[in-house]
Amino acid sequence: MTRRFNFCAGPAALPESVLQQAQQELVDWQGAGLSIMEMSHRSSELVGIANKAEQDFRDLLNISDDYAVLFLQGGASTQFSAVPLNLLGDKKSADYVNTGQWSKKAIKEAQRFCDVNVVASSEDTNFTTIPAFDSWQLNKDAAYLHYTPNETIGGVEFFDVPDVDVPLVADMSSTILSRPIDVSKFGVIYAGAQKNIGPAGLTMTIVRKDLMGNASAHCPTMLDYKTAADNDSMYNTPPTYSLYLAGLVFAWLKEQGGLAAMEQLNRRKAEKLYSYIDNSGFYANPVELSSRSLMNVPFTLASADFDKAFLAEADEAGLLNLKGHRSVGGMRASIYNAVPEEAVDTLINFMKDFAQRNG
Ligand SMILES: *Cc1c(COP(=O)(O)O)cnc(C)c1O
Q: Do residues 204 and 193 make contact, with C-beta atoms less than 8 angstroms apart?
């Protein structure tokens, strides 16, 4: 068996030890005589797995009892509508920051439910910057402010949490668990699992409890946070196997030393890669220095004519899924928690070699 280095933006790399444990437990989970996939979600085994996953997730992010942790489905994209449906209350508008493709999708969906006030946009820099906070046109009657702390496609990340008077909502799909955050500053945090948590099919949502219970009369039962919270995320059948794997990843993260340790490692990985790109004379990253993502590193080659050869040769060298998003072009290396430092070193060596041969 040869595992190759996977730089996919999502579904993304998983820790090898987690996959091995899952393989070992696949057919007969810990002597239960059946696999997780075949277990009732009401069984004591599965409830135990869910409870432990929730506790480990709470420990990792230091989440207080003021917050509910929900295991949902539908991906982050479903949260684009769940957020306004749950949080608007009797308000008619919400504030959104537009920093890239995912912000835009969130905005478009919210426009189905309310007046969206775009407080700031970095579209004029082709989404390579974060608009300065003091320029934001906040609406004091907004039900909440939504932003995307890490734009997975553009590779732009916020390193400061916006300070606003309304509940703060964050789409953390591609940054959650990459470094410590102060959850108490947020009203709602959501993330599709398939970037930095586990396999697709699971969506983690953290909701401040006082924000639940005011869902719009039109809110589908399945999108109402209170339904999920009141039923321990088991109003209907949850994605049990994804939940189990996410639980293994949470336990793995604790073994690695938690999020402070992950941040150190992630900074080291990202700094190496950006520093090589900047000094290469062959590759370039367009994002302003202070907003460069620790998780998603887009880069272009000296000429787009090299792209095809780069991708083919990278693939041959065991470096997978480096093609950039079609809206940005070039390459993108997603270097989530489960992408080891060795993968980044190998990528940099490959890039050096390619540049030498083609530069
Ligand atoms: C991937 C991604 C999404 C979409 O997630 P789905 O789970 O596929 O709906 C939304 N926002 C961000 C920031 C993402 O990276």
A: yes
Q: Is 195 a catalytic residue?
A: yes
Which residue among the candidates 29, 95, 104, 195 is catalytic per the annotation? 195
Ligand 1, CB within 6 Å, residue ranges? 10, 75-77, 102, 148, 152, 171, 173-174, 192, 195
Sign of CA dihedral 233, 237, 238, 240: positive
Q: What is the pLDDT along the chain (359 residues), one digit of tens a residue?
A: 789 999 999 999 999 999 999 999 999 999 999 999 999 999 999 999 999 999 999 999 999 999 999 999 999 999 999 999 999 999 999 999 999 999 999 999 999 999 999 999 999 999 999 999 999 999 999 999 999 999 999 999 999 999 999 999 999 999 999 999 999 999 999 999 999 999 999 999 999 999 999 999 999 999 999 999 999 999 999 999 999 999 999 999 999 999 999 999 999 999 999 999 999 999 999 999 999 999 999 999 999 999 999 999 999 999 999 999 988 889 999 999 999 999 999 999 999 999 999 98
| 95 C-alpha to ligand 1 centroid (Å) | 20
- Residue 237, marked binder: yes
Question: CA nearest 194: which of 204, 184, 186?
Answer: 204
